[in-house]
Write a structure and sequence with these properties.
The chain is α/β, with parallel strands linked by helices and about 270 residues long. It has one domain (about 1-260): 4-Layer Sandwich (Nitrilase/N-carbamoyl-D-aminoacid amidohydrolase). The chain contains seven helices and 16 strands. It has helices at about 15-30, 50-55, 65-75, 160-170, 185-200, 250-260, 265; strands at about 1-10, 35-40, 80-90, 95-100, 110-115, 120, 125-130, 140-145, 150, 175, 205, 210-215, 220, 225, 235, 245-250. The strands form four sheets. The chain has a six-stranded mixed β-sheet. A six-stranded mixed β-sheet has the order 8-9-10-11-14-15, with helices on one face. The protein has a two-stranded antiparallel sheet with strand order 6-7. β14 and β15 form a beta hairpin. α1 runs parallel beside α3. The longest helix is centred in the C-terminal third of the chain and has 19 residues, at about 185-200. The protein is globular, with a radius of gyration of 17 Å. The termini are far apart.
Length: about 270
């Protein structure tokens, strides 16, 4: 079976209304090119790093205007839309970085809260403390779409291979890694990490990214990428501008890669040092 996917690369603004106006035409473009599954980046609904400005704008998932707009678009066009992540308020009042899978009827069929918080001090002097704003998730999530099983993850998760082994062991053959990667780490590590996650699990990797310099002053790497189960890059945007990346996935390639190098079945339990 072949699945035509569309990755949307955005430069998400700092308000919901502007973010929705930004992403809707890009999703329409991907569907016009034949995509039946569309993935958007991390923080599709709003991108603002100042907590005092961001937090009052966050809503419950059910009330988020960008997610609601994309639900309506999925139903209108009859396609799957994976909101790579929406920054939302939880029922307990805390914030979450949440991936949202929407079916062709406009219904939410799965959600995933980002497991790993990006708390770092980079050599460039950049500092990030995601844990100061977001509550991490506690579970890995797989979800079925027409003919494929997805493994959901977000951005910094990609540096933790155990997540992807668990997803692949649960039957996922397509791994989603929407991101808002920093520019220095993106230049150094983005593609090699994506290829590694594909090779070690025998899975397709779909990485839709934020790109460019945003209203809040941050810079993101862009370069949205699609990797096949053998590790070859089969699609990439070689820039950080908003755009759309289309590829056809031969889903049987995952079975062939896993049969050729059966790392999932050859893995053995061991005692640590």
């Amino acid at each position: 079976m072949t699945l035509r996917v569309g990755l949307v690369q955005t430069r998400t603004p700092a308000t919901h209304a502007a973010a929705l106006a930004h992403v809707l035409p890009l999703v329409r473009d991907a569907v016009a090119q034949g995509a039946t599954f569309v993935l958007t980046p991390e923080a599709t609904n709003i991108l603002e790093r100042n907590r005092e400005t961001l937090l009052p704008q966050l809503t419950l998932l059910a009330d988020d205007p960008v997610v609601s707009g994309l639900r309506g678009l999925a139903a209108e066009l009859g396609v799957w839309i994976d909101v790579g992540s929406a920054l939302v308020r939880r029922e307990d009042g805390k914030a979450a970085n949440r991936q949202v899978l929407i079916n062709p009827a406009g219904e939410i069929t799965a959600t995933y809260d980002k497991l790993h918080m990006f708390d770092v001090d980079l050599p460039t002097g950049e500092t990030a403390r995601e844990s100061a704003t977001y509550e991490p998730g506690g579970r890995a999530v797989v979800a079925d779409i027409d003919g494929a099983r997805l493994g959901l993850s977000i951005c910094y998760d990609m540096r933790f291979p155990a997540v992807y082994r668990a997803l692949a062991s649960a039957g996922a053959t397509v791994l989603t890694i929407p991101a808002a990667f920093t520019r220095p780490t993106g230049e150094a590590h983005w593609e090699v990490l994506l290829r590694a996650r594909a090779i070690e699990t025998g899975s397709f990797v779909l990485a839709a990214a934020q790109g460019g310099f945003h209203e809040d002053g941050r810079g993101t790497w862009g370069h949205s990428t699609i990797v096949a189960p053998w590790g070859e890059v089969i699609g990439k945007l070689d820039h950080d501008e908003p755009g759309v990346l289309i590829a056809d996935l031969d889903l049987a390639e995952a079975d062939r890669a896993r049969a050729a190098i059966p790392v999932l079945t050859n893995a053995r339990a061991f005692v640590g040092p």
